[in-house]
């Protein structure tokens, strides 16, 4: 992540996970899958914002679809962040 688009993507993810900024920043540096999820989350949020420009007869369905994407992606990101905290027993330092 380093371009303006990348920064916007990261800011979107940080809005959804404000208390986990350092964790999120650390994991996006080493997990391309998490970066992809954050990009999809940003795109879903943009799509949701753009539903106002759609014809009235499709707005509600499109909003529901976008909210579903956002819910799924935030759950996946949450699970990825949680999995990133796990230290396998074989990697513990011996004291």
Layout of strands and helices, then pairs:
Blueprint: H1 4-16, H2 21-28, H3 32-49, H4 56-84
Radius of gyration: 16 Å
The secondary-structure class comes to: mainly alpha
Strand content: under 5%
Q: Give the biggest sheet.
A: none
Give the overall shape.
Answer: elongated
Gap between N and C termini: 36 Å
Question: In sequence order, what are the helices and strands, one letter per element?
Answer: HHHH
Helix proportion range: over 70%
- Compute the average pLDDT: 87
Unreliable spans: none
Count up the domains: 1
Task: Give the helix tally.
Answer: 4
Strands, total number: 0
Task: Characterise this structure.
The protein is an all-alpha fold. It has one domain (4-83). 72% of the residues lie in helices and 0% in strands. The protein has helices at 4-16, 21-28, 32-49, 56-84. Helix 1 (4-16) packs across helix 3 (32-49). The radius of gyration is 16 Å and the shape is elongated. The mean pLDDT is 87.
Defining key terms:
mainly alpha; 4 helices; 72% helix; 95 residues
TL;DR?
The chain has helices at residues 4-16, 21-28, 32-49, 56-84. With 95 residues, the chain is an all-alpha fold. The longest helix has 29 residues, at 56-84.
């Amino acid at each position: 992540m380093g371009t303006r688009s990348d920064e916007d993507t990261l800011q979107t993810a940080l809005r959804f996970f404000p208390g986990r900024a350092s964790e999120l920043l650390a994991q996006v540096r080493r997990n391309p899958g998490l970066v992809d999820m954050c990009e999809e989350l940003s795109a879903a949020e943009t799509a949701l914002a753009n539903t106002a420009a759609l014809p009235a007869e499709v707005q509600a369905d499109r909003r529901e679809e976008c909210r579903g994407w956002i819910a799924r992606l935030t759950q996946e990101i949450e699970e990825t962040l949680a999995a990133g905290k796990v230290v396998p027993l074989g990697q513990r330092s011996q004291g």
